[in-house]
């Protein structure tokens, strides 16, 4: 049992930190604490990423509409996530440092397919699914040299910003966040902020750190829009309900009572 416990703990820390905590009982080692915190955050983010875009998917399905969701933004976001996932996988970075991108890629691909499907093009939705699957295989199946992935990762920041901020522009133009899920937006913001720390701690890769920093900025813009338009929509509903309430409050004329002899 002790061996199984040790094996489990070694997924979260290296041998040196294990000895510090469980042999020497040195619980105040700063480096080991940061490493353990990073691992815990990493696996926590991965667990959260399994469901992070499910509220968005269910909202589209419930309304049978993808109104207000920019396909251009979704596709750019999906491309950036996929390149980041392939770059991390091929580099051999710890799964705790990038595993959430696998689940985010799958859910983002589903959203893109749904935007096409509910936009009236089921054939395009099917073609997109096949094409994206082929791209993932080419990037992660050993068909793409690492140097090309590095170049693609370098373009990730402008692509990511363009994709996210184009969604922000769509929100501004529509005066609403449409079918965007507030839960999804805030979970993405929290995840990208936490990933800055885990990237510094686990990989030290400057490209990954810059990418997550840019993602955090773009996610913050959209999260602030969700709050702003949420309040605006409430005010519009309140103003629209006032005249209706006033009209309902107008008393109907009483029917004349019949006189009895």
Automatic annotation (TrEMBL):
Which GO biological process categories is it annotated with?
oligosaccharide biosynthetic process
Predominant place of localization: membrane
Name where it's found. Answer: Membrane
Q: Which UniProt keywords apply?
A: Membrane, Repeat, Transmembrane, Transmembrane helix, Transport
Q: Per its UniProt record, what InterPro entries does this chain match?
A: MannP-dilichol_defect-1, PQ-loop_rpt
Q: Name one GO cellular component term.
A: membrane
Q: How does it sit in the membrane?
A: Multi-pass membrane protein
Q: Which residues cross the membrane?
A: 69-89, 177-197, 209-230
Which family does the UniProt entry place this protein in?
A: Belongs to the MPDU1 (TC 2.A.43.3) family.
The name this protein goes by in its record: Mannose-P-dolichol utilization defect 1 protein homolog
Which species is this record about? Anopheles farauti
């Amino acid at each position: 049992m002790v061996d199984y416990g040790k094996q489990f703990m070694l997924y979260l820390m290296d041998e040196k930190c294990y000895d510090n905590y469980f042999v020497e009982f040195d619980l105040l080692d700063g480096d080991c604490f940061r490493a353990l915190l990073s691992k815990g955050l990493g696996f926590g983010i991965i667990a959260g990423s399994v469901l992070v875009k499910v509220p968005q998917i269910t909202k589209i399905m419930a309304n049978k509409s993808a109104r207000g969701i920019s396909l251009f933004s979704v596709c750019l976001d999906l491309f950036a996530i996929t390149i980041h996932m392939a770059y991390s996988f091929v580099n051999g970075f710890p799964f705790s440092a990038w595993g959430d991108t696998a689940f985010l890629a799958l859910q983002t691909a589903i959203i893109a397919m749904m935007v096409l499907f509910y936009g009236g093009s089921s054939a395009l939705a099917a073609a997109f699914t096949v094409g994206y699957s082929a791209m993932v295989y080419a990037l992660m199946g050993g068909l793409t040299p690492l140097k090309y992935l590095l170049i693609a990762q370098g373009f990730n920041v402008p692509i990511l910003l363009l994709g996210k901020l184009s969604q922000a522009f769509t929100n501004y133009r529509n005066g609403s966040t449409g079918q965007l899920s507030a839960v999804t937006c805030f979970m993405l913001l929290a995840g990208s902020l936490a990933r800055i720390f885990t990237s510094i701690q686990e990989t030290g890769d400057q490209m990954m750190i810059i990418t997550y920093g840019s993602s955090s900025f773009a996610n913050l813009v959209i999260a602030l829009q969700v709050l702003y338009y949420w309040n605006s929509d409430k005010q519009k509903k309140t103003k629209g309900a006032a005249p209706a309430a006033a009209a309902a409050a107008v008393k109907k004329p009483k029917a004349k009572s019949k006189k009895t002899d």
